[in-house]
Amino acid sequence: MESKNIKYTNQRIEILNFLKDFDGHPTVDEVYEGVKVKLTRISKATVYKNLRFLTDKGLIREVNSKGVSRFEGNLVPHHHIICVECGDITDYESEELTDYSLKVAEDIENFKVEATDTNFYGFCGKCLEE
Ligand SMILES: [Zn+2]
Ligand SMILES: [Zn+2]
Fold first, then answer.
1. Which end of the chain has fewer CB atoms surrounding its CB within 10 Å, N or C?
2. Does the pTM exceed 0.90?
């Protein structure tokens, strides 16, 4: 990762810190609500632009659920459990699954696989109760 070429503006540092402390996968709105406590003059558009930038640079990860972008600072390879009803996302760590997927990927022709993650779709406990 070419981190030395990345300009760490105050905004980017605050967003990275927020994501690091946030337990889950916040939406742009949630990141905005979180960082504006400290960056009182920041706009939602700026938060969005910075999230895009950080995702492009590989410093954070984007996950989609129900067409909504969510972000996370956890770069350790992991999988996601996604509720199709409420859009809730939970991390699912399984080295076994990662290793297996990468092994399967060796059979893919004309393509060099660098990473893999699996999404499990279904209904979360809360939605099942309702
Ligand atoms: Zn749910
Ligand atoms: Zn995650």
1. C
2. no
